[in-house]
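pasting for the record
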Amino acid sequence: MRHEGESEGLFGLHGRRLLVVEDNPLCAEAVREWLQICGATVETAATVRDALARIRRAAPDLVVLDVLLPDGTGWDLLARMRKAVPGGRGVPAVAITGAPPSAVAGPAGEHGVRHVITKPIAAEALAAALADCLSSA
């Protein structure tokens, strides 16, 4: 027996291709596992360089990105993705960070990021942000 919304996965993520860019392996794995439980196909990357390579191979429906990465920032990734990757301008992003939201709100807005989720990540907050971004894309 199928329940209402089941075919779309939890939070409408069934079949969505997501990229999680996070250099903390435990955080990346936790987010990846949760998104997969929700029905998404998820790849992970730990650096700007690795993320760009993955995006060039197959653009995701959405990027969940850490603000501070070993080889740059999430903002660097977004700028490069939107400039150099075909279709990159249309890929929405949700930022995750350990920094206070007020410290990243300005740059997030400048780079078209509508949602900043602080760590530790609350599943409900991330789900709401993803659903909002994907329904608006």
